[in-house]
Amino acid sequence: MLKTILSISGKPGLYKLVSQAKNMLIVESLQTGKRQPAYAHEKIISLGDIAIFTDEDDVPLGEVLESIKKKENGGKVSLDIKKADSEALRAYLADVLPNFDRERVYVTDIKKLISWYNLLVETGNTDFVEEKKAEAEPEKEAAEGAETK
Fold it and tell me: In angstroms, rounded to a whole number, what is the distance separating the alpha carbons of residues 43 and 69?
């Protein structure tokens, strides 16, 4: 699901990929539902390609959003990002992702993460982690069975 949700630099909010054309994408705003073009020269990134820095390996954004969802019982984040100070924001992320890299993850990144999460929950886009393992096992077994025949 996160592969089709996009962040476009210079444009507020998140967008859903609707269609692709030669030199542009057609996107739909999650807030307003309005469709508009996003051109190749704009910085467009899929949420599925984003990861959060940790002390060991980077953690995909979907896993972090899923952790927030568990902490908030599927609801919006209770912390007000406009009024919260930097220590409260860092403490919140530490609850969700204890080993995040405190030097490379900035307060603005935490605010953006929380605002994205709230927007995704508001719009009903809460399938943050795809169930790859359960689907991949039968396919793998079928492929192995076909090779041995």
Answer: 28
Joined together, the tokens standing for residue 15 give 């967008």
Residue 17, judged by CB atoms within 10 A of its CB (0-12, 13-18, 19+), counts as middle
The predicted-structure confidence for 9-60, as pLDDT tens digits, reads as follows 988 899 999 999 888 999 999 999 999 999 988 999 999 999 999 998 899 9
Residues 58-102: pLDDT tens digits? 999 999 999 999 988 888 888 888 888 999 999 999 999 999 999
Q: How far, in Å, CA of 89 to CA of 44, rounded?
A: 26
Domain 50-122 CATH assignment equals 3.90.280.10: no
Which CATH number is 2-47 given? 2.30.30.730
pTM for this model (two decimals): 0.81
Q: Which candidate, 10, 82, 14, 77, places its Cα nearest to that of 46?
A: 14
